[in-house]
């Protein structure tokens, strides 16, 4: 590297380096910018530097973290990271000055300064908001003329209301703006074109204090319940996130990224407590709905009668409750996207606050159209896993708002806010007959049957048995993730394996009441192993679990990897050894599964998790009861026979997926 450094470079914690090779999807993980200019340079933070913590807190406000380890952290500047910075009150000069202050480099590369100038020029020139149940956007007149010259395609969705002047705080001058009313349900389209196509960072603010100051005394008494119980308080990273949401007496819409187990739900609750108005919370699964309700009752002074649950199984919606001004309504995506006529009671209301849990699922077609009908003054998206295999993750930044805060898993582990997970990948072979069948289908490129064979490899259950023995001896609590739980159940052998190990199986077919009963037994230490289908990938609240074992997985889904790790990442007491949690991936060697898991492995390593690869033969389990060992051998022989029969019967045209 020919880069010249400042004389006092040792006092500065970052280096700006040119990238010769394009970044991988994991490194440039969120794929949030179409303009590749920012990918030419990488900002490297020395985590061992004495000023590293302060530098990281600065960098995270205008740069996107691309990989994290104990000693080194890398960042990239993108349009979306600059969108975050401007929403948090930064401007072009401040960003460039901070980079210069922190960098060892004698000069900031011109490509970076040009990129910053280009992508900050339109801030404070477009404002998006809800007013009297309609969405509006105010665009500065000069910018509007420029957009028209550049063929801005949304004018048909805008109705001119008026021209007015407003003060630009950064330049201390008044500018003329044009106020537009947006056509019903077209606000996503308008924001998409402004943000994605024209790099206009649309500002979304809500003056939440305005009405609170004018509330009557009897209403003020009702608001007393909008507070945390005195025995609970937020962690430092949650407080930082809350401050970024509420700045300059305004509430800002946007996305919060916190690792699994770092308290996203509690943060969301505190946003609602601060708004003190009608709030709609949309969860992913039914489990999540009840978890949010439970958390509100545990952490706050909220009256149970002011927390409404809305689910598809209900015959009638609580219309009386929905009419209240100070109500928390919790539902899930399935309900919002249902074709029930009474769902209009929810979609036609004006919501001061909309919280979308697991917001990475928003781009999905079945929920996206219904969310666009909702009217909210303020939107907050919560996620631990800002990843999508279809690269649509950037949609959440024009549908919700820019990223407002992100906490790094490495830092939270060091502060003791989440558990330290040690990741182990275990290679396992196939029996000769099984391997021959795999090679047979490989020759004809039957991907579906090949996938089924390596995912349902009975040898994996031999490894699973050994891991259960090892961790039961340590008195650990185990969760098993199985992608093919329904297909294995069809063979009848999974139930036999579960019965041998005294552990239940939970798939989508198991009713909620039965699931709750099993979870209760697990939390009371009357069960120590549960086998799950995909249903446990998110929204599972079993904080005592400290061992995760995945015997099959959803191809290269990085999101699933982190979601499953998140099930065991809650903070633990009475830690044994350096690591208090273990996450295993059992992979069939000599198959495409190795390649698939490699992509997931790289993503995990880039987030600073320790990772080890071993063979099945290296495991040293305790002595197993001879009778149980013999039973296991019979079960696995039967499993192999039935899996091979299933593949032979279904043949090449079978594309059935498990119904989770």
From TrEMBL:
Residues 462-627 form the Helicase C-terminal domain. Its EC number is 5.6.2.4. It catalyses: Couples ATP hydrolysis with the unwinding of duplex DNA by translocating in the 3'-5' direction; ATP + H2O = ADP + phosphate + H(+). It comes from the Eukaryota. GO terms for molecular function: 3'-5' DNA helicase activity; ATP binding; DNA binding; hydrolase activity. Residues 245-404 form the Helicase ATP-binding domain. Keywords: ATP-binding, Helicase, Hydrolase, Isomerase, Nucleotide-binding. Pfam families: ERCC3_RAD25_C, Helicase_C_3, ResIII. One of its GO terms (cellular component) is nucleotide-excision repair factor 3 complex. GO terms for biological process: transcription initiation at RNA polymerase II promoter. Belongs to the helicase family. RAD25/XPB subfamily. This is DNA 3'-5' helicase.
